[in-house]
Amino acid sequence: MTDFTDMHWAIMPHVCRVCMGRVLAHKSIDGTKTFRCSNCGLERNGETEIVICSCGLKLRTGRDMGFRCLVNDKKTPECESEIVATQVNPL
Asked: Where are the domains positioned within the chain?
């Protein structure tokens, strides 16, 4: 059986840039921050969740795509997600 005592993950108010699954965060004893998608498993180390979340989406030119992770105020049967990625700054 797996020992979960040292596996504390926080649910972040962000979604994965690959699959839109929720982003989880973990800080290890040495201070390393790991961000992981709870759906597809994409995992990266970094200072903030922007290393895997939709807020960090950029064009090939490096220009910000203008997406931000926001609370879904208008849940519907088609989209019940608590957090969604929304384009807030048009290109």
From this structure: 10-87
